[in-house]
Amino acid sequence: MEELIKNIIVGIGEDPDRIGLKGTPERVARMYKEIFRGYDESQKPKMTIFPNGQDGIFYDEMIIDTGKFYSHCEHHMVPFFGDYWFAYIPAKNGNLIGLSKVARMVDFCAAKLQIQERLGQEILDEIWKSVCLKDEDIIYYPSGMAVVLQGQHLCKTMRGVKKEGVMITSHLKGCFTKKSVKKEFLNLIK
Fold first, then answer.
1. Which of 20, 35, 106, 174 has the smallest count of CB within 10 Å of its CB?
2. Where are the alpha helices (DSSP H) in 12-131?
3. Could you read off the pLDDT of 168-187 as tens digits, one per residue?
4. Using CA atoms, how far apart are residues 69 and 182, in angstroms rounded to an integer?
5. Cα–chain-centroid distance for residue 147?
6. Do the Cβ atoms of 168 and 148 come closer than 8 Å?
7. Above 70 in pLDDT, residue 45?
8. In the chain, what are the domains?
9. Alpha carbon distance 65, 100 (integer Å)
10. What is the pTM assigned to this prediction?
11. What are 46-82's pLDDT values in tens digits?
12. β-strand 113-114 against 63-73: which pairing, if any?
């Protein structure tokens, strides 16, 4: 990979032996392994789940987690980044999610060459699978789950059309597809 990066430096008209660029191919190679760790399944976070009601309290209302995400456009290999909102409504006989693991799963899924539409769906699918509880032949699903991403894409702002703006995508499952639940969620994340 270092040799390829050196060739890119030459290809853009720079001298890879210039003092400021010494070591750059090795640094960039190490950085790529870090920021594209989403291809390494051994680094996928294990979701921590807790049986709903294990402490005698059953929770069946909306739970929302927010944070930041950072990814790279698969078309131009430049960053896109922004905010995420993750929400779920646990089933009474289902599971609660350890929220720090939501952020870790967002980071893992984002650590690939991506498009925002697929990123949101992948986050939703990975967390959904992790939370489902199988008891003998019965699978207990959450009542619903949602992911909204609002991203700024450098492939739009620093090249091409060179326009500011954000892209918003939503991914809804279960009761979040119902108009009233969707409306409540969107009002809460305004």
1. 20
2. 24-35, 99-110, 116-131
3. 999 999 999 999 999 999 99
4. 22
5. 9
6. yes
7. yes
8. 2-34 (no CATH), 45-188 (3.30.1130.10)
9. 9
10. 0.92
11. 998 888 888 888 899 999 999 999 999 999 999 999 9
12. parallel
